[in-house]
């Protein structure tokens, strides 16, 4: 009988009925297998216990581990978001090297592994999410866990050269090789991951494309993530949400929705909208940019800096272009209810996704799903978002080229209906093909076909260093 599913992710839903595409897909997969979902407790400091706190139980169990304030600072804000995040998003200039960051990151992963090891059966499948837990499989293997362990990286895989920024660059490949399956967002990410292994003398390529690394074999594949397409489209059609959106946002509306993050290219997006306003004819219809961008990680200096920069640009552009009854840039700093968001997407004639680097970008997919296929808006999409790999009929732009983005905004507003329909239909097909339910089932069925390279139950009690053993090759 197949075992249960164990999911590990930094964020974990606390409510009884989780919402949001990724969360729902994971929730559904867990309900089917009666498994366990473990994540960090939303309260930074727990009640003092060092173990797992159960936060929900249904057909599966949700448990959380607590981070002390020091762990939150050094593991989450430190190594995860001031080292790995900028590294993976091409901003090695923002990487902050602090010994305590790395030490705490490893210590938290070791602790989570200890909390989990006894709860994982040999036939279970473990699905680890994202850069907060890169060393987790290595720690679980050290504790004798032989179950299949898969990893999905939601953010871009870093280019080879950038890995040298890490305090111990060789660790990255070793961490990944402790998983049986490494899932990445795009074919480009997969190529970069394989390039890392190819340049490492410890790695060797098997005939079936898997990588043998010391005593382990790991498969590397892309699994582009998506959204709950039909459910989101349904939300956008809801008439009550439409009725609430009659605000005077001008005749032409372009929308942007992002966490306030330097990887999303927001300053250039605002500048491009300013250049579009500069170039438009005096009698052209009024156009507004509605930017929804709640701040995140504000204790990290780079996030405070981007907020200040953006407010300055918005202030300057509004000063130059506002009229008594019209403000061209509306900048909202808080999260918006998903139903309202879906309605706003549908109301907007264009959506600007201008990421300088992005694993996938779900906003691009949500915008397409929310459109009326008979009269759709136009997606303007950065070539550096993972979504651009398959959504080739969006207006693809270089987010460093302000003039090109300004022209794209004008092109989107002037685009004939037939062309809008054709581009939208092609993009919608790409969104459907990567529906989040497809993404989850593809990843899990691929993981189930991986042949675990360590089936040595007698090692379960030992927490010693990894032992070597003959490699079992995956069937080709
Ligand atoms: P994010 O960097 O958070 O995700 P994205 O993929 O765009 O980026 O997802 C953002 C989600 O949050 C969307 O569903 C969006 O609707 C929602 N959201 C953003 N701002 C909001 C607001 N103000 N109010 C309400 N909802 C808001 C990371 C990676 C991405 C990858 C995803 C999933 O950085 O590249 O696509 O994980 O793997």
Automatic annotation (TrEMBL):
Pfam families listed in its UniProt record: Glyco_transf_20 (PF00982)
Keyword list, A-Z: Transferase
Biological processes annotated in GO: trehalose biosynthetic process
Superkingdom, natural source: Bacteria
GO MF, one example: alpha,alpha-trehalose-phosphate synthase (UDP-forming) activity
Gene3D superfamilies recorded: Glycogen Phosphorylase B
CDD domains cross-referenced by the UniProt entry: GT20_TPS
Family: Belongs to the glycosyltransferase 20 family.
Name the record gives this protein: Glycosyl transferase family 20
Species the sequence originates in: Roseivivax isoporae LMG 25204
Biological classification of the source: Bacteria, Pseudomonadati, Pseudomonadota, Alphaproteobacteria, Rhodobacterales
């Amino acid at each position: 009988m197949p075992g249960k599913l164990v999911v590990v992710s930094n964020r974990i839903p606390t409510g009884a009925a989780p919402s949001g595409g990724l969360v729902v897909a994971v929730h559904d997969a867990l309900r089917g297998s009666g498994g366990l979902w473990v994540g960090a407790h939303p309260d930074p400091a727990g009640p003092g216990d060092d173990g797992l706190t159960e936060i929900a139980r249904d057909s599966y169990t949700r448990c959380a581990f607590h981070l002390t304030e020091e762990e939150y600072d050094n593991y989450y804000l430190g190594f995860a978001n001031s080292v790995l995040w900028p590294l993976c998003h091409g901003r090695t200039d923002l990487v902050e090297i602090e010994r305590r960051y790395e030490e705490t990151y490893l210590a938290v992963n070791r602790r989570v592994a200890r909390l989990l090891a006894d709860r994982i059966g040999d036939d279970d499948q473990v699905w680890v999410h994202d850069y907060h837990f890169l060393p987790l499989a290595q720690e679980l293997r050290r504790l004798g866990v032989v179950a299949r362990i898969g990893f999905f990286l939601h953010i871009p895989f870093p280019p080879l050269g950038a890995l040298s920024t890490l305090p111990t660059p060789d660790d990255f490949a070793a961490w990944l090789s402790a998983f049986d399956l490494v899932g990445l967002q795009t074919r480009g990410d997969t190529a970069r991951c394989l390039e890392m292994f190819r340049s490492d003398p410890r790695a060797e390529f098997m005939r079936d494309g898997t990588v043998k690394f010391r005593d382990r074999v790991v498969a590397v594949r892309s699994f582009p993530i998506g959204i709950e397409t039909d459910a989101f489209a349904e939300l956008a059609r809801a008439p009550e949400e439409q009725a609430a959106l009659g605000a005077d946002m001008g005749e032409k509306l372009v929308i942007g929705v992002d966490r306030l993050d330097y990887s999303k290219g927001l300053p250039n997006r605002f500048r491009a909208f300013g250049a579009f306003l500069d170039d438009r004819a005096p009698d052209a219809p009024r156009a507004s940019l509605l930017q929804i961008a709640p701040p995140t990680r504000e204790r990290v200096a780079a996030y405070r800096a981007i907020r200040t920069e953006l407010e300055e640009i918005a202030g300057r552009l509004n000063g130059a272009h506002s009229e008594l009854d019209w403000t061209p840039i509306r900048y909202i700093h808080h999260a918006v209810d998903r139903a309202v968001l879906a309605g706003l997407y549908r109301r907007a004639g264009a959506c600007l996704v201008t990421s300088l680097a992005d694993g996938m970008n779900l906003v691009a997919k949500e915008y397409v799903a929310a459109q009326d296929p008979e009269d759709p808006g136009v997606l303007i999409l950065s070539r550096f978002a993972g979504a651009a790999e398959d959504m080739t009929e969006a207006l693809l732009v270089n987010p460093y080229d302000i003039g090109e983005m300004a022209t794209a905004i004008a092109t989107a507003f002037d685009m004939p209906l037939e062309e809008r329909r054709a581009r939208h239909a092609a993009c919608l097909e790409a969104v459907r093909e990567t529906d989040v339910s497809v993404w989850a089932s593809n990843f899990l069925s691929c993981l189930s076909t991986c042949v675990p390279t360590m089936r040595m139950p007698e090692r379960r009690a030992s927490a010693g260093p990894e032992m070597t053993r003959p490699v079992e090759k995956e069937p080709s």
